[in-house]
Fold this sequence. Notes:
Elements: H1 31-39, H2 47-77, H3 86-97, E1 104-105, E2 121-126, H4 127-136, E3 157-161, H5 174-186, H6 190-215, H7 220-228, H8 230-233, H9 242-259, H10 267-283, H11 297-301, H12 328-351, H13 363-375, H14 377-393, H15 401-426, H16 432-459, H17 480-494
Antiparallel strand pairs: 1-2, 2-3
Helix pairs in contact: 2-6, 2-7, 3-5, 5-6, 6-7, 6-9, 7-17, 9-10, 9-17, 10-12, 13-14, 15-16, 15-17
Amino acid sequence: MRGAKKLPPSEDGASARHRAPHHRRADTPSSGTSSGVLSGAPSGKTASAGALAVLRAVMPWIVLAVTLLGGIGYMAVTAPGHIPDVWSHVYRVDGILNGDVLARPVQAMSRLHGGDGSGNVGGRVDWQWIEYSETHYDGYDSNAVLVDTITASDDAGADVPYNNTATNTPAVYLPQLTGFAVGKALGLDAGITYHLAEAIMLVVYAACTAGAVALLPRWRILVGLVMLCPLVTHRYSFAISADSLTQALAFLLSCMVFRTMYRRVGKGYCAALAGVCLMLAMCKLTYAPLMLLALAVPWLQRDVGVSPFGASPSGASPSAAVPVWRDPRLWIGVAGNAVSAAWLMFWMSVTGWFVTTPMLVPYEEMIARRHALLADPATMIAVVKAIALSIVTGRSNMGNRPDSVVIRCCWIAIAGMAIVLAAATARRVLRPVHAAFWWFAAVLIVGIMLLTYLALWLQYTPTESPMIDGMQHRYFLPLAVLGVLCGAEAVSALRRPAMPQRSPAPAR
């Protein structure tokens, strides 16, 4: 075997000592090859290829700078109150700071949580935020409280409802909580505190996305462009919302797992990955299944030229000689998933006594729906039909036409991803472990979206509606990077010749 060659600049700063080129499998594509597929650059050392290599190297900094500058611009042109459910999020953040970590029954009503006030939950909110939401309410966000319905108050604050955000854990608001805490400690007015919280969220979001791109051994340019798409960043890079941190962590998790396909990682890296999984699970329940991706790391690492287990005999992957169950990285992932699952069960148990929109779906009706879904085949069939019809028609919240168009495009993109993945699998141009991983990822993507539709049916869709109400394109965005990586890997593989059949490994 020939000695090690100098790594191309496209391989995101990984040095030769972290790889063993003489152990590299013949079918391992280089990052330069994959990037050339995307850009159409020739394989030779041309000026174009050199420019692309430089662009790949600086792409994390581009993502950081453009996200920060773009976010500042978006903040400047986005009026307070023009973020989905923003007043409910503002109330929730301030309620947590006032000690209401768990929501409790309140009698006040908002424009969304109306009716007779029964079934509403919320917490103690300072008057400055109640007044700020009233001042800036212009019909966009109906979560603003109806002041004349407040029954419990004093000079400091009042009990207000925020049902649809009450299930969110404090973890998902850590950046915004920091801003609100600083504002309260310094006695800042609501307007300054509002924008301070947005600014802190923007910095955290930019750091997560830039770090995610820096971790990528392949597809930096493509993923960076996806992350900088205005559809992805507008409102969700800085918002006082549960979406901002959720989206940033989902992007980071996707890139962290993808790196393990082509780079050696150790126990510390897997521990950090487990921490990101836990944080994501604490952000939004529907995206918690993404934590299962971490369990694939030991198998993905077996197909990398270098493993933590030492030198390999005869050029074989070192980890291939070690049973997976002896890999500590597996048990780190298992532990992370177990802790995340335990947290989810705990949080659902203490927040499962109310619904997000009692005016549309009372708690008793939600319980009846859940029981019928598990016990009544007719209900199961009806829900499946409603979800299928909603997907086909691009049904969106309140019939928003632009949102419907984007939702249709998202499902078309998912279908396209599945088609190219099926073609790559059929032609055997993907490594078996990679093919299995990407099918697993594809199932997770589709499953998460179906879970979102189901949650909206349970707690948001009126009984008389033939389709699922409440779907918004923003629910697809945290899955964008994972889906793009899946499609890019499949398309890149289709440009290679099929791999030869291999004899099965002896049973252990």
